[in-house]
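Quick start: what a row looks like.
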Amino acid sequence: MMSKTALLVIDAQVGLLEGPSIGPVYEKDKVLEVMQTVIRNARELDIPVIYFQDLDVGEDNLKEQEIHPMLAPLATDLLFKKKATNAFYMTNLQEALTELGIAHLVVIGCKTEYCVDTTSRSATVLGYDVTLVADGHSTTDNKVLSAEQIIAHHNCNLHGLDNVSNFILVRNSNENIFEHKHLEYKS
């Protein structure tokens, strides 16, 4: 069974990745390199790349609001501006995915416990299988947990999370992340 995949690049913005007001995220250089590779691989496979820009990031600094220059979208990529942690909320994402015939989403971006988590969980109840790239998302420390702990916690808890018939797999970027591996479990 063949299905169509899209890559979601969530809030890969200068203010989150570099700071200074919110970032830099944990292992910034490593996550930037992984995200850049994932985006390049998606384009080589003709997989749609869909970007999100959180309007709360850098609202007082337009430079921080920009998508990081190492990850900049092409004119052919979709770009959605959003105000909520859920990339589906008050955007046309659902319509765009339906029009493209997408069944599987690969997710990278920032911040792990907010927009990456919320969008991944929401996608499953909307009928999408999700591959969260374990080394392709990041965050910052909070008052209770280090960024490293937050990332590890989400990679552990989201792996296998299912809603009705769709679920999340957490896979490393060195795996074939664009393969809709979920189908092996549904046969």
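That is the whole record. The chain is about 35% helix and 25% strand. The chain has a mean pLDDT of 95.
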